[in-house]
Specification:
The longest helix is centred in the first third of the chain and has 10 residues. With about 500 residues, the chain is mainly beta. The strands form six sheets. A five-stranded antiparallel beta sheet has the order 1-5-3-4-2. Strands 6-7 form a two-stranded antiparallel ribbon. The chain has a two-stranded antiparallel sheet with strand order 8-9.
């Protein structure tokens, strides 16, 4: 399973409460879209680019692209649902949520989806055309009503919802079958019965029954239009009732099979509860049962291999990312049991051994057994090539500025986070090259300087001394691992 779209409906419902203009947009990192109509601007940040999109008069702005390092902004007439997308590591795509929604709120006056046929299946007439029907509602007379192409709209606030003029000469207009959006408002109540979820929603027991794009969920006890194995008798503890959104298999969040034959399944828009999840029993420093609640600091396997950090993808790529599983205790490189194995384990730093179990002292005999300390990271004094494999601990730029931590958004907001670039080892504030630049760099802690290259030398430059800020230590062995060298800084 996999879908990258954010829970845009929930964000849209919150937009009237929050004051940030970016709350009206769905954000996707590392994506470029090909569009015919676009406009280039120079802006200082994403909010200024959003302002340009809102003020765009050359076309209806549905999205914009922004690159942090070059401060470039591109307003777009199309979004990812309307055109081709491809990877571009240094860009971030913002799409207006209102144009992504395929469901309506209330009577649908703000519906901006792309449904273009009536409830009887008759194709809609374009709003700008006069055949076969001369329209009273046109884009010129109602410029703010979204009367584009032949999409269903509600320019006159009809209580029956969105409609359109039809291409049938015998029927002037008809209503469209636009599904209602689930009104999923943030709840503050605790417990599994609320309309909000804790962690990944494995205990969610609410009654949401539509997906994030507005599709109706298929009942769990039927096999049409999609056959599946999630049957109540096989999963009695998963509460597979009716067609309610559930998470029986440890996915990122609740989901369901859909009633659309062309869409097998999709995630649901379940908001996170405002109250934190319960923490009782999750601070165990010893092994109880399978150790799923173990939260100690042992970070070495039973054969003596050091554990790989959970938020990195080197030397082993994996799906157990801390941000995806916020309640599994995936901190640092500590041994954990996020998937119900027989005892805690971890991925190893040995490229030849993917993972191993850890030796955790049982809770009934902990005397004299201390947690194994985390091994100090290896350091490097220089970098090879463009420095994409550099894993040292240098954290000072060429002008002497201290590097900003990659996970921090102060003083500079950015998209180069450990979660977005899992292969780049964006730990602490160490110099790195996640985007294929000419050498390792970092964002700085100077509010007036967004980023700079780091004070490092190439390993093959024997005529130069190592950078003064490089930590002494052994050079990391070459494992043969490389990252893509294509930089995402170029603009089409």
């Amino acid at each position: 399973m996999g879908i990258s779209k954010a829970a845009f409906l929930f964000l849209f419902l919150l937009s009237s409460v929050k004051g940030d203009i970016l709350d009206d947009y769905s954000r996707t990192d590392g994506v470029w879209i090909l569009t015919r109509k676009k406009q280039f601007y120079e802006t200082n940040d994403e909010k200024e680019c959003a302002d340009k999109c809102e003020a765009e008069r050359n076309f209806t702005c549905r999205a914009f692209l922004f690159t942090r390092k070059k401060l470039q902004c591109l307003t777009l007439a199309e979004n990812a649902k309307m055109t081709v997308t491809f990877a571009s590591t240094d860009t971030v795509l913002y799409e207006k949520i209102i144009y992504l929604m395929q469901c309506k709120r209330g009577i649908g006056t703000d519906y901006r989806g792309t449904e273009a046929k009536t409830q009887r299946g008759i194709p809609c007439q374009k709003w700008a055309e006069k055949i076969p029907h001369k329209p009273n509602y046109t884009p010129e007379k109602h410029p703010n009503a979204g009367l584009e192409e032949n999409y269903c709209r509600n320019p006159d606030a009809d209580e029956n919802g969105p409609w359109c003029y039809t291409t049938d000469p015998a029927m002037r207009f008809d209503y469209c079958a636009i599904p209602e959006c689930e009104d999923q408002v943030m709840h503050t109540g605790e417990g599994p019965q609320g309309e909000c979820m804790q962690c990944n929603g494995e205990d969610y027991r609410g009654e949401a029954s539509r997906t994030e794009s507005g599709l109706e969920c298929q009942h769990w006890d039927v096999q049409e239009p999609h056959m599946h194995g999630f049957i109540l008798k096989h999963y009695p503890e998963k509460d597979l009732k009716m067609n309610y959104c559930r998470n029986p298999d440890g996915e990122l969040r609740p989901w369901c099979f859909t009633t659309n034959p062309n869409k097998r399944w999709e995630y649901c828009n379940i908001p996170r509860c405002a109250t934190p999840p319960p923490v009782s029993g999750l601070d165990s420093q010893c092994l109880s049962g399978r150790g799923e609640d173990y939260r100690g600091r042992i970070a070495i396997t039973e054969s003596g291999n050091a554990c790989q950090h959970w938020n990195t993808q080197f030397p082993h790529k994996h799906g157990w990312v801390p941000d995806r599983y916020p309640c599994k205790g995936l901190e640092e490189n500590y041994c954990r049991n996020p998937d119900g194995e027989k005892k805690p384990w971890c991925y190893t730093t040995n490229s030849n051994i993917r993972w191993e179990y850890c030796t955790i002292p049982p809770c009934d005999r902990t005397e004299g057994i201390a947690d194994v300390p985390v091994q100090a990271p290896l350091t490097e004094e220089c970098y090879r090539g463009k420095g994409q494999s550099y894993r040292g601990t240098a954290s000072v730029t060429v002008s002497g500025k201290k590097c900003q931590a990659w996970s921090s958004m102060f003083p500079h907001r950015h998209i180069k986070t450990p979660e977005k670039f899992p292969d780049a080892d964006l730990r602490e504030n160490y110099c790195r090259n996640p985007d294929g630049d000419s050498s390792p760099w970092c964002f700085t802690t100077d509010p007036n300087t967004i980023w700079e290259y780091c004070n490092l030398k190439r390993c093959d430059d024997h005529a130069q001394e190592p950078a003064p800020n490089a930590s002494p230590g052994m050079m990391e062995q070459n494992t043969g691992w490389t990252t893509p060298t294509t930089s995402g800084n170029s603009w089409l």
